[in-house]
Amino acid sequence: MSGVVDLRSDTVTRPTPGMRAAIAAAVVGDDVFGDDPTVNALQERVAALLGKEDALFVTSGTQGNQCALMSHCARGEEAIVGALSHMNRYEGGAGAVLGGVPFHVIANRADGTLPLTEIEAAIKPDDQHFPVTRLLCLEDTWNGRVLPQDYLDAAAALAHRHGLATHLDGARLFNAVVASGVAPARLVQGFDSVSVCFSKGLGAPVGSVLVGPRDFIARARRVRKMLGGGLRQAGVLAAAALYALDHHVDRLAEDHAHARLLAEGLQGLPGVTVEPAHTNMVFLDVEHERAAGLVAQLGQRGLLCTGLYRLRLVTHLDLGRDDIERAVAVLREVLG
After folding, report:
1. d(CA 20, CA 4)
2. How many Å from the N-terminal Cα to the C-terminal Cα in the chain?
3. Beta carbons of 178 and 249 less than 8 angstroms apart
4. What's the whole-model pTM score?
């Protein structure tokens, strides 16, 4: 949309000219038969980058998380998740509906972590009355926040001591990598499986990759088929993800800088609390009496965002500094 600053999500990006050229030039095969060379190259590269044995290309972050959930857990076995996690709130209840996997939900702290004492208390004893606790799921980044590395290590170690598997929803994992300076394989070292999305900050049109041990990925491939994710000439999509790895990872620092600029420009607005930007997201808490119709008002002025009492503003590769300055001006006009 011409003249619009779209801060709804980093999923709204269009493929760059270079990415479109990579898509057009992709060498393809039939991935269900395992002979799409571009998909295979992407899977091998992501597995190596994250220090895991194998990988599987999937259509979305939700599909990747559900393949992981249904590969780690049998029906009736339990996963521990955060109350405000994507898996709990934004995947349509798929874990229960499709996988028969109940969730034990723990409230996220303000930094996105789940208290270790509460994780340990949630693990059920071996008793026929209870589901078997099988899996711990964490998310990084969470609401734009990078989970501390020592916390990730401690939570994974706790889960493994109790015989649980671990899964990391790393939809925006590369934002965490760029913000923290921690190498990808080190960041996810404690996790048995990890899902990574390419259609968010990395700017690809479609696709995520799930990584883990070879036998786990074999199970996940079967689950992917059941979920309708057996794609044919998927190399046209994998080519976009490979291009993103080559060209769009380091530039995430620009999105983070734009988010800081946005947050700094909104300080001091009456009745508005601005959270510091940790990666590419800015959150505004607005007094209830001023929140009614706010998203629509901003939209009428050419600024798109999501939220009600809390606005979420997400920076991405389609935005430049001038877009951020315009967004600040609109928000200050409406909220000031």
Report:
1. 23
2. 26
3. yes
4. 0.95
